[in-house]
Amino acid sequence: MSLRILLVVNAFASSVTARNTVIVHQVLSRGNDVEIVETNRRGHATRFSQDAARKGVDVVIGYGGDGTLNEVATGVAGTDTALGVLPGGSTNVFARTLGMPNDPVLAVQQLADGINTRHIEPIGLGQVNGRYFCFHTGVGYDAAVVREVEHHGSLKRWAGHPLFIYAGLRTWATGYDRNRPHFEVDFGNGDRVVDGYFTVVLNTNPYTYLGNRPLDLSPAATLENGLVVITFTTMKVGAILGSLGGALRGGGVKPSESLDLHTDVEALTIANHLPFPYQLDGDYLGETKSLDFRHVPNAVRLVRPNIETVPSKS
Description:
The chain has helices at residues 18-28, 44-54, 66-76, 93-97, 104-116, 141-151, 153-159, 161-175, 237-249; strands at 4-9, 33-38, 59-64, 82-87, 120-128, 131-133, 136-140, 183-186, 192-196, 198-202, 208-210, 213-215, 227-232, 259-265, 267-280, 283-303. Helices cover 31% and strands 35% of the residues.
């Protein structure tokens, strides 16, 4: 029995080309009914996905960067419509977390196998202020870096990782106050971090990829567990580089005087009397004075790609 599939394409994403889209459509259409729609503004993918879910479409696939995927996941969460993942951006954190290659022409064969074998299972997502996230939310410095990247959005397709490095250095030098804490983190059980400089709330691990190297913050962050919350309580260079250096070597970061680590968290609040920046799945969302997080088990039905498939170029 064929499935009804909606392929939501962000044609501006770095790995999305007309040729790749044709190949992706051909592979997915073998035995299935596939419709293609293209996004042209923020929130468009969510509306497409919500409409598809209301119409009983079996699978909605996000083909673009992590922001496109987030919007599609938000649109189908809580429905019977399954979520498919296809890498089309430069980093594609969530797709690579699932074991997919970073090339959509290779990855689509694994996804098609998962669809055709009905390898679909519920997974948990994070939620902050009512919005879902697939792999992480960054608060403070991390978000300020993403904000700087988005100021140069026209270069993102072509510059990729060098742009992020530039943004990180510029933000460190001039774009973020490193002399005072920016918020408090409250876990609701008596545990609090009163001097947060930046926090990463993980739903999966790794946090991101630097080229082919995963930035491994916590192996406890999985789709089966609650959230992992990592808070830096200083912006001293040695403390930051020491922790991130350990993350690049694998095994995750370790708690210390300058780093707080909580695992399997069901809910938390981050707040301050002054606004602070935050980003969600790599999408900068502005500044706020309060963020309410919770872990939502079985939030979405995910098509698991068959990573045992040995993909080949079409």
